[in-house]
Amino acid sequence: MEASETPRVGAAVRRRRRALDLTLADIAARSGLSSPFLSQIENDRARPSMRSLQRIADALDTTAVQLLAASDETRTVDLVRAGDDSGLRRGARVRPVVRGRHQLHALEFTGEQQADREFRHRNDELMYVADGAVEVEAEGRVHRLGRGDTLLLSGGVRHRWRTTEPGSRVLVVAVGDHVEVLGD
């Protein structure tokens, strides 16, 4: 079992799995995680690391962001304090800054982020570098962003990104529920 600070996402995982008419064994085979571990997650007896959550999301044809968003109830007014942490991953911290089921998804990434995944969002995405530096590869071009820089990626643009300085802090805001994770 992996330790983490990821929010409880069991109900969201179970809803998505059932919507796809999949068994725990199906998800275990797709994710490489054990059925007992997945059962513990669905029953909120275990909390997956961000890496495991991404593996589960991949197996469910969705993203970790979507599962995190689906784990919270919709709020009309919601204050997220700076100290509200959600997840740790190899020295990196991921914190939702918008919670609940909304069209707007926003995450703050702090620490080392690797460009190991390529994304394509149906709708627009905005990246804002609060501290440090980031390198974004989009449509064959590399964009280097520093503190205070903003990059807008229109819907449909394939991209990947990574931090290039320790302690970097990046805000990523995306619109809509349709995110496609592309293979390498």
Approximate shape: globular
The tally of structural domains comes to: 2
Over all CA atoms, what is the radius of gyration? 16 Å
Portion in helices: 10-25%
Blueprint of the fold:
Elements: H1 10-19, H2 24-31, H3 35-42, H4 50-59, H5 64-70, E1 87-89, E2 92-96, E3 104-110, E4 118-121, E5 125-131, E6 133-138, E7 141-146, E8 150-153, E9 158-163, E10 169-175, E11 179-182
Antiparallel strand pairs: 1-2, 2-3, 3-10, 4-9, 4-11, 5-8, 5-10, 6-7, 6-9
Description:
Mean pLDDT is 82; it is low at 1-6 and 178-184. Helix 2 packs across helix 4. With 184 residues, the protein is of the alpha+beta class. The chain has helices at 10-19, 24-31, 35-42, 50-59, 64-70; strands at 87-89, 92-96, 104-110, 118-121, 125-131, 133-138, 141-146, 150-153, 158-163, 169-175, 179-182. Helices cover 23% and strands 32% of the residues. It is built from 5 helices and 11 strands, in the order αααααβββββββββββ. It has a 6-stranded antiparallel β-sheet. Strands 7-6-9-4-11 form a 5-stranded antiparallel β-sheet, with no helix packed on it. The protein has 2 domains: 10-70, lambda repressor-like DNA-binding domains (434 Repressor (Amino-terminal Domain)); 103-182, Jelly Rolls (Sandwich), CATH 2.60.120.
Give a brief rundown of this model:
This protein has helices at residues 10-19, 24-31, 35-42, 50-59, 64-70, and strands at residues 87-89, 92-96, 104-110, 118-121, 125-131, 133-138, 141-146, 150-153, 158-163, 169-175, 179-182.
